[in-house]
Amino acid sequence: MAYDFQVVVDSVNPHTLADWWAETLEWPVEEQDEAFIKDMVARGFATDDETATHQGKLVWRTGAAIRHPEAYSSGKPRRVLFQQVPEAKTVKNRVHLDFWVGDERRDAVRDALVARGATFLYSQSQGPHSWHTLTDIEGNEFCVS
After folding, report:
1. How many whole angstroms separate alpha carbon 145 and alpha carbon 132?
2. What Rg value do the Cα atoms of the chain yield, rounded?
C-alpha cells in the first residue's frame, strides 16, 4: 500500500531554512494565514510568544513549509516541513535528500548552491554514478547527482 508523506526537517530557524530550500527547489513557501493566527491569539488558543514576524508577515514561530507545485493524487500536498527545535544540528544526518540534476549540470548546481550558502563536503562516485555531498545553511547533508 502506498502512502502520501511529508519530510520534516528539524531547524533552529525554520522560516529562513524554508526560504533557502524554496529557492533551491523552486517550490513556493506555504502561506500562513495571518487572520487565523491573530484570531487564535485573540481567542486565547495561542499566545503572541508563539508567533513571529518573517519578511513582514505574521507567522507561527515554530514552523514553515514548502510545497511541490503538484499534489499527490489524494490531493494532499507534497511538502517539506521545517520545525523549530532548540538545538543546532551536531551529528551526521541519518536520512538525507538526493537531487538528480544530471551529469551535465551537477557541478554548476553545486557551485550555485555554495554561492547561496551551502557548504561543499566532497564528491564521490560508485560505478557509473557520481554525486556531490553538501550541507544546507544549517548543516543538513544532501546530495546532488
Report:
1. 6
2. 17
Q: Measure Cα distances from 54 to 29, 31, 59, 96 in Å.
A: 12, 11, 7, 27
| Cell numbers at 69, concatenated | 507545485
pLDDT in tens, the chain (145 residues): 679 999 999 999 999 999 999 999 999 999 999 999 999 999 999 999 999 999 999 999 999 999 999 999 999 999 999 999 999 888 888 889 999 999 999 999 999 999 999 999 999 999 999 999 999 999 999 999 9
| Amino acid at residue number 34 | E
Q: Taking the CB of residue 136, how many other CB atoms lie within 10 A of it?
A: 21
Kindly give the pairing relationship between strand 51-54 and strand 129-135: unpaired
Determine contact, residues 63/82, Cβ cutoff 8 Å. Answer: yes
- List of residues 6+ apart from 57 with CB closer than 8 A: 32, 34
What does the block give as the cell for 65? 513549509
6 touches 81 (CB < 8 A): yes
User: Can you read off the three cell numbers belonging to residue 81?
Assistant: 516541513
